[in-house]
Design brief:
about 100 residues, mainly alpha, 4 helices, about 5% strand
C-alpha cells in the first residue's frame, strides 16, 4: 500500500465513521423546545461537531491501523475472499 492509498483509505474510513457518529447524542430543536422560525423541529440544537470530529479521528485511526496492518502484512488477500473465482486466474507468478 502506497502513501496515497493509505491517505485515501483513512479518508474513507474517517468519513464513514463520522457519518455514524453524527446522530449520536444529537439534541433537536423540538426536544429542546426552542424551534427557530423557518426551521424544522428535527433540526439540531446541540450537535457537538468538534467533539465528534475528534472522537471520529481517534476511532478512524485505530480502524485504519488495523486495516493497513492487514493489507501490508498480507494476512488477508484477494485469493482468501474470492469465493467464486471472479478475480481472475490463480496467483500471479512473475517467474513464469
Amino acid at each position: 500500500m502506497g502513501p496515497v492509498s493509505g491517505i485515501v483509505l483513512f479518508v474513507v474510513i474517517w468519513s464513514m465513521t463520522f457519518l455514524v457518529a453524527i446522530p449520536i447524542r444529537l439534541q433537536t430543536q423540538g426536544e429542546a423546545g426552542e424551534v427557530v422560525p423557518g426551521t424544522h423541529t428535527g433540526s439540531p440544537q446541540k450537535h457537538h461537531l468538534k467533539k465528534k470530529a475528534l472522537i471520529t479521528t481517534l476511532v478512524a485511526a485505530v480502524i485504519w491501523a488495523i486495516a493497513a496492518w492487514i493489507i501490508i502484512t498480507g494476512q488477508i488477500t484477494l485469493a482468501d475472499i474470492d469465493l467464486f473465482e471472479r478475480f481472475g486466474p490463480g496467483e500471479f507468478n512473475p517467474a513464469e
